[in-house]
Amino acid sequence: MNRHHALLLALLGLVLARPAAATAPLAADLQALLDGFLAANPIAPGVVAHVECPPLGLSWTGAAGHLAHDDPTPLDARCTFRIASNTKTYTAAAVLRLVESGRLGLDDALASHLTPSERDLLAGDGYDLQAITLRHVLGHTAGLADHSDGDTYGERIVADLQYRWTRREVLEMCVELFDPVGAPGERYKYSDTGYVLLGSIVERSTGRPLGPAVRELLDYESLGLCCTWWETMEPAPPAVGPRAHQYLGRLDCTAADPSFDLYGGGGLVCDAQDLARFLRALLAGRVLHEEATLAVMTGGGTPPYRLGLMCMELGGHLAWGHQGFWNTFAFQVPALDLTVAGAILNHDATNGRVLAEALVARLARAQADREGGRRP
C-alpha cells in the first residue's frame, strides 16, 4: 500500500468508521476530511475545497488551516489561488470555441498558426510543424517536449522569483534543453510548451491579450464566474476573497512574478467555487456551443488525457477534470453528478487527487444511503 492510499484510508476512517448518518450532518463529515488531510500535511498552511452535488441538494465550500504559515488568519472558504495547469482546460475550451466559429481548424497544421520566429525556432529543433496539428497539441500528442521538465527551469525560477519571463524565453528554454520526444500522434507526452503555443494562437486569432480573449470566448459572465481572472492581464474582480499563500516546500511563492506559468498552460486565479462551476458548465454543454465539439473534447486524445481534460478513476468512478502544479484540482464524476474542486496550499503536500478521491468516496456513500432510504 503506498502512502497516498494509506492517507486516503485514514481520511475515510475519520468519517466512515463512525455512525455519521446518525450523529453528524454530511457537511461536518466533509469538513472532517479537510481537517484530517491538513493534519497529515502540516507543510501546507491550509486546504480549501468546494463540492457540488445536486442529487444530494449539496453545494458546500469548506476550508481548514490558515491563510499563510506566518499569518494566523483562518483560511477563508472564499480564498483565491493560482490554479496552474487547471488553466489548460480553459485554454483548450477557448481554442475549441475558435474552431466552432471557423477561425481555427483542429486539423490545421501548427505551422499555419505560428509567427515566423516561432516557426524558425521550433523547426530548427527538428519539429515537423506541417505534420503537427492543433488537435495533437491540445491532447499532448504533438511530440513536443516540455520546458518545465527536469530541474533547470525550476531552479532558474527559484533563483529569482521576481524575474519577468516572456513567452519567447519559455519557448527558447524548451528548445535549449530538449529535443522532440516523438513523431506527431505517436504517443502522449504532457507538454506545458504546447499550451504556451496555444495561448499565442488564441491571442493572434482574436487580436486580444490572452486573459481578456479567453474571458470573452468562454463568456465568464453568463457562467457566473465572478471570481476568476487572468493574473497580470486583467484586474482582480471586486468580489474576490482573500488571496491564499501557495508554497513550494518552505518557499512562499505567492508574490513571485506569475510569468513563469502565465501564457496558456497556467495563468488563471480563482476560488474553489468558480473552479468547480466552470468544469460543471463545460461538461454540461454550457461553454461550447455545439454538442459535437464537447464530444470531440472528451473523446479525442488518449485514455489519460483528452483535449484539455484529464480522464481518470476516482473511487471506482470515471472522472473528468484537471490538476495543477500548485496542488489544485477539479474533477467531475458524471455517474454521481458530482463535482469537487480545491487547493492544498503546498505543492509538496500529498497530491490533491487523494483528497478529491476521499470526498468522492464520502459523497458516493451518501448517495447510496439516500437510495437505500437511510439518512446520508
Strand content: 15-25%
CATH architecture: 3-Layer(aba) Sandwich
Assign the structural class, choosing from mainly alpha, mainly beta, alpha/beta, alpha+beta, or little secondary structure.
alpha+beta
The oligomerization state is single chain
In the CATH hierarchy, the third-tier topology is known as Beta-lactamase
Radius of gyration equals: 20 Å
CATH top-level class = Alpha Beta
Helical proportion, percent range:
25-40%
**What is the terminal-to-terminal distance?**
29 Å
Give the SSE string. HHHEEEEHHHHHHHHEEEEHHEEEEH
Describe the structure concisely:
By secondary structure, the chain is α+β, with helices and mostly antiparallel strands. It has a single domain, classed as DD-peptidase/beta-lactamase superfamily (Beta-lactamase, 3-Layer(aba) Sandwich). The protein has 14 helices and 12 strands.
Key words describing this protein structure:
alpha+beta; Beta-lactamase; seven-stranded antiparallel sheet; 14 helices; 39% helix
Task: Note the topology.
Elements lengths: L2 H14 L3 H4 L2 H14 L6 E8 L4 E11 L2 E4 L5 E3 L4 H14 L15 H8 L10 H5 L13 H8 L7 H11 L14 H15 L3 H9 L1 H4 L5 E2 L16 E2 L2 E2 L15 E4 H12 L7 H9 L10 E5 L2 E8 L3 E6 L4 E7 L7 H20 L5
Antiparallel strand pairs: 1-2, 1-12, 2-3, 4-8, 5-8, 6-7, 9-10, 10-11, 11-12
Helix pairs in contact: 1-3, 1-14, 3-14, 4-9, 4-10, 8-9
